[in-house]
From TrEMBL:
Regions annotated as coiled coil: 31-58
Tree of life domain: Eukaryota
Protein's name according to its UniProt entry: Flagellar associated protein
Sorted UniProt keywords: Cell projection, Cilium, Coiled coil, Flagellum
Length: 126
């Protein structure tokens, strides 16, 4: 037969804890340290959460500014395209002299107006 594994025969009474004044002080000190550490961690967590909120706000501001810059970039690119188209049109028309003829005509008209004004002032003041 196998040996008996009854718990009643193998159970020994637990040793009594010695709760003297020194042990109580050590336990109180440890408990206070744990409590202090927990409070410090709570404060640090609150600080991190505050920083995260500030970072989220800063991120939103950055994203808004980035969006604004993207819109400005698109506007500038559109202006560049229009200017390039205008230059291409100008160069096409300048080959046949259309702009040069218009320029000469305008200079002639301005000269006529200027000469008329000179003559008017000579007779008016003279």
């Amino acid at each position: 037969m196998a040996p008996s594994t009854s718990r009643t025969t193998d159970m020994r009474p637990l040793p009594k804890t010695v709760a003297n004044e020194r042990n109580k002080q050590q336990l109180n000190l440890i408990a206070n340290n744990i409590g202090g550490t927990a409070e410090q961690l709570k404060r640090q967590l609150a600080q991190v959460e505050t920083e995260l909120k500030a970072d989220a706000k800063g991120k939103k501001e950055f994203e808004d500014y980035h969006t604004k810059l993207l819109i400005e970039r698109a506007d500038i690119e559109e202006r560049i395209k229009k200017n390039k188209d205008w230059i291409a049109n100008f160069e096409r028309n300048s080959d046949n002299g259309a702009f040069e003829e218009q320029y000469k005509r305008l200079v002639g008209e301005i000269s006529t107006i200027y000469e008329g004004a000179k003559e008017f002032h000579q007779h008016g003041w003279g």
